[in-house]
């Protein structure tokens, strides 16, 4: 389960040869055919540790999510209270399960209507935002070249879908009153079962499709492990028809568009229960909405991320986008429904500044990377000519290619400083909830583990590709995330 995995990766290289089939590596560094079997996509062979990790996640990830929402629903968001009750005999697992709201027809109808509406917005409504929003890139865009030599086209209309969805939500909330704005919170646990059903259904369908009727068999990978194939995916870009792309839709539609709606529903519930919305809830809504809108404004850029350029579509993305993302990335808002926190003004301003600073670093680091890549290094970074590490690599056909690694601006501070900004923003979401419980801090802990792992994964690819040139780069930029520390 990725975070809005929509993070562009670390150190950035200037343009590679445009005619080479390539996928995206860390920070815009591109692999040509060189990477084909060893570095493109997920692994071909699975060691015992990877297999054990896969089986663990398949078995326990749904229970982890259930535990968090159950802890809020039955124990006021205390993570330790359920364990203490079970350990002391005050409660049995069957007692907790009996108190858990079941799947309901109402929740099923809401969820089916939601997903259907997003499918229709994705497939049937061409983007018009790019026609009147300066600087926004939407409409039909090309993705990276797959190892099979396929260049997929995508209808980039996520910002449009987000705007239409939220406009209708506001019209209903303030004018029509067809349903209560607390509808998501009121059906939170029953909707969880619906999300799981869709997550497993789409993951299973993608698995079957990859085996029996793939979009392009050359872009499939199989291992000897059924569990690994199921979790990490077989098919690189499963599609139905010309435009319905599984990865782009599930990574960038139902879960992420719902993120801000879920927060709004939590705010509405807080107001219903306590008569007002706390400044902490406002902070969470604003800071997370900035992040979501940033994703949709830069959706065309998302086609360059590790999700699109390396990951296959399996349970990891399918279930993760349907369940993990909307249920665990919104824990701060859920917590604040049960524990409304009114922050001191100076503390709230500090949290806001931390979140905005983190977003600024995240966005500007990615902007510097994109500028460097688009101009082949002929640009100014922080008003100066960028510092460049010249490097080379060999393609599968033994052709030697040359590239440039950026070591200026934020990319001279640390090799993945965009992740540092991301973590600052993540910490701000959690700090907005005060210090009463551990639960709202799960997000920043998870993000720290995930992005650290992604750093190591990215750099393994780069070291394999660039060899001694990569060593020169790491000598010039010695830290990964935190200057002077890591």
UniProtKB/TrEMBL annotation:
Keywords of the record: Cholesterol biosynthesis, Cholesterol metabolism, Endoplasmic reticulum, Lipid biosynthesis, Lipid metabolism, Membrane, NADP, Oxidoreductase, Steroid biosynthesis, Steroid metabolism, Sterol biosynthesis, Sterol metabolism, Transmembrane, Transmembrane helix
Endoplasmic reticulum keyword on record: yes
EC number: 1.3.1.21
Catalysed reactions, semicolon-separated: 5,6alpha-epoxy-5alpha-cholestan-3beta-ol + H2O = 5alpha-cholestane-3beta,5,6beta-triol; cholesterol + NADP(+) = 7-dehydrocholesterol + NADPH + H(+); 5,6beta-epoxy-5beta-cholestan-3beta-ol + H2O = 5alpha-cholestane-3beta,5,6beta-triol; 7-dehydrodesmosterol + NADPH + H(+) = desmosterol + NADP(+)
Subcellular locations according to the entry: Endoplasmic reticulum membrane
Topology with respect to the bilayer: Multi-pass membrane protein
UniProt protein name: 7-dehydrocholesterol reductase
Organism: Physeter macrocephalus (Sperm whale)
Encoding gene (name): DHCR7
